[in-house]
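REVIEWER CHECKLIST
Item 1: Sequence provided? yes
Item 2: Single chain? yes
Item 3: Sequence as submitted:
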Amino acid sequence: MISKNMEAALNHQIALEGYASQYYLAMASWCDKEGMEGAAEFLHFQSLEEREHMLKLFHYLSEVDGFAITPAIEQPPIEFESVQEVFSLVYEHEKKVTQSINDLVATCYSENDYNTLNFLQWYVEEQREEENQARSILDKIKLIGEGGQSLYYIDKEMKKFLAAALAKEAAAADSEAQ
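Item 4: Structure as written out by the authors:
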């Protein structure tokens, strides 16, 4: 049985993950409109991944006799100044999600909820990886610059980040299958 306080905190996280999915989908659409196919594909993948994070929380709440609430998702921004702004916003959002996960972990300790603490360890590791990836992308964009030709190289780099993310996902699926 999960406490009402923890249930509410996990439902807050569900809403945050749901918003991230929509946010990254809006960014993908903007990148696609700007001819940044690689960045759009990467952000579509990230959007799906955030939805999966939300669903994991949904299922967990059901397993522990809690009640998951489908979040109302506010409209994310749809216009951006540049691809650098897009990934600066991704990085800032990932840091916000990390802080929220850290707050959940602190709540677990204060409530002696070791089942949820164990469940959240996956999120702790995932957020370290997500922040590192967003920071690495932003560093590459800053290094390459944003002139006309630079956008071409940024887009190619985004395809590499997507390929790495897909390989990681495949390896995780193989590991779980064994």
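Item 5: Key structural point noted by reviewer: The chain has a mean pLDDT of 93.
Item 6: Recommendation: ____
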